[in-house]
């Protein structure tokens, strides 16, 4: 049974840049309606894909590590595909929002989108941030969270 909950799953390890972006996405979710936002850092724990089962939407964030999504988020996606192939259909189909931080290259964006778009339809564009989010980037993250809430409301309504 899905609830008015959106999970923000991200990896942040070296500077806290992606964590700062995740907190702004969560602020945008909380500010846009009656949705609870739960933030989980894959650097702190191995996040089980089952967390998606009661969510109406999900946001995913990664730093660019060697032009690829961070290992913790890749492990999440490995676990997600194995669970999905094992018959867990509750972990797919909800709207998703994506954000990325990088040091100036940012070539992880394409593989990041390719991996995460398997989970569900993407809301808007990936928010792409060089370094730590400044006020403009923080606002873009909050807007992304708000846009995700609008799609999550439609998704919940369609679930009957
Ligand atoms: C191991 C490692 C590899 C990195 N590789 C890249 C890279 O290929 N391209 C890039 O633009 N930035 C790269 N960076 C910079 C990070 O993407 C950037 O500092 C990011 O904001 C760090 O996020 P975090 O503080 O949440 O861990 C790398 C950083 C680390 C620690």
Description:
The N and C termini lie close together (11 Å). Helix content is 39%, strand content 21%. α1 (17-31) crosses α4. The model has no long low-confidence stretch (mean pLDDT 97). The protein has a single domain (5-155), classed as Rossmann fold (3-Layer(aba) Sandwich). It is globular. It is built from four helices and six strands; from the N terminus they run βαβββαβαβα. It has helices at 17-31, 71-85, 109-116, 135-158; strands at 5-10, 36-41, 57-65, 68-69, 96-102, 127-130. The protein has 160 residues and is of the alpha/beta class. β1 (5-10), α1 (17-31) and β2 (36-41) form a beta-alpha-beta unit. 44% of the residues are buried. Bound molecules: flavin mononucleotide (FMN). Flavin mononucleotide binds at residues 12-19, 63-67, 101-106.
Roughly how many Å apart are the termini? 11 Å
Please work out how many helical segments DSSP would assign. Answer: 4
Number of domain units: 1
Percentage of β-strand residues? 15-25%
- SSE string, helices as H and strands as E: EHEEEHEHEH
What is the typical, i.e. mean, pLDDT? 97
Please provide a brief summary of the model.
The chain is an alpha/beta fold. The chain has four helices and six strands, in the order βαβββαβαβα.
């Amino acid at each position: 049974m899905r609830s008015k909950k959106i999970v923000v799953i991200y990896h942040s390890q070296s500077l806290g840049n992606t964590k700062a972006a995740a907190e702004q996405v969560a602020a945008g979710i909380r500010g846009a309606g009656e949705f609870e936002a739960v933030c989980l850092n894959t650097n702190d724990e191995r996040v089980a894909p089952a967390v998606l089962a009661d969510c109406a939407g999900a946001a995913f964030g990664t730093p660019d590590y060697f032009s690829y999504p961070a290992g913790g988020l890749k492990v999440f996606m490995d676990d997600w595909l194995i669970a999905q192939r094992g018959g867990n259909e509750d972990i797919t189909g909800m709207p998703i929002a994506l954000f990325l931080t990088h040091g100036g290259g940012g070539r992880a964006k394409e593989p990041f989108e390719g991996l995460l778009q398997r989970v569900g339809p993407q809301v808007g564009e990936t928010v792409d941030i060089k370094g730590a989010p400044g006020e403009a980037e923080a606002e873009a993250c909050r807007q992304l969270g708000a846009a995700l809430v609008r799609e999550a409301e439609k998704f919940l309504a369609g679930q009957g």
